[in-house]
Structure to design on (219 residues):
């Protein structure tokens, strides 16, 4: 069955660590039956599958260097070319640089793009991250009320890099790196800043409302 790419449901999720963008991205993807594409996941997948970009990434990582724009753009391009992404996708973790954002524009052409920036005050983020737990088996970020991992039943532990001092530094780096991306998208019709201090249900509703406004009632 052919898919009308002009009506594709393409969503980019921006937000600092602790804003809940991963959870919100997953909820939206499940509701609309489009893939949630996390750059961490597809990077590991490409390395395991030994694709051309995966081998290049492996070489960079084995040398102890960060994976650069060219490789990340190539890996995301390969992923978005798959059949399951033709009706749309939710991107979590890409773009992270203006160059990546420009490359994404090139991949999409005339397709609509909604960019959601989940905004949460720093003190709230520090508090959230200090109490955040993740599954030792599958990496799922747990909600406060969850006693065990709802995905695989694994043990939930506090992340080492979620201590207050490390969290503050991670947030500083995120703000420095992401400010140019937000500025790149801010003037676009498809950009929305959303209050991340609202309940998860209210945040999800705001995301769906943003997609509806841009994509014409598909959310």
């Amino acid at each position: 069955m052919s898919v009308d790419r002009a009506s594709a449901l393409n969503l980019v999720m921006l937000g600092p660590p602790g804003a809940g963008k991963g959870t919100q991205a997953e909820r939206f993807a499940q509701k609309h039956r489009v893939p949630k594409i996390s750059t961490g996941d597809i990077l590991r997948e490409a390395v395991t599958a030994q694709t051309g970009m995966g081998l290049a990434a492996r070489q960079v990582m084995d040398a102890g260097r960060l994976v650069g724009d060219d490789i990340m753009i190539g890996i995301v391009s390969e992923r978005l070319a798959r059949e399951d992404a033709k009706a749309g996708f939710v991107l979590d973790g890409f773009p992270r640089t203006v160059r990546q954002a420009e490359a994404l524009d090139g991949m999409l052409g005339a397709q609509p793009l909604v960019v959601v920036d989940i905004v949460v005050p720093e003190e709230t983020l520090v508090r959230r991250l200090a109490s955040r737990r993740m599954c030792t088996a599958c990496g799922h970020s747990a909600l406060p009320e969850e006693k065990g991992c709802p995905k695989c039943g694994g043990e939930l532990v506090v992340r080492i890099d979620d201590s207050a001092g490390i969290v503050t530094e991670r947030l500083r780096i995120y703000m420095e790196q992401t400010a140019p991306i937000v500025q790149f998208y801010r003037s676009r019709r498809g950009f929305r800043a959303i209050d991340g201090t609202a309940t998860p249900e209210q945040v999800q509703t705001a995301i769906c409302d943003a997609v509806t406004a841009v994509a014409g009632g598909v959310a």
DSSP finds eight helices and eight strands in the chain. The beta strands are 9-14, 36-38, 88-92, 114-119, 133-135, 141-142, 156-158, 191-195. Residues 164-186 form the longest helix (23 residues).
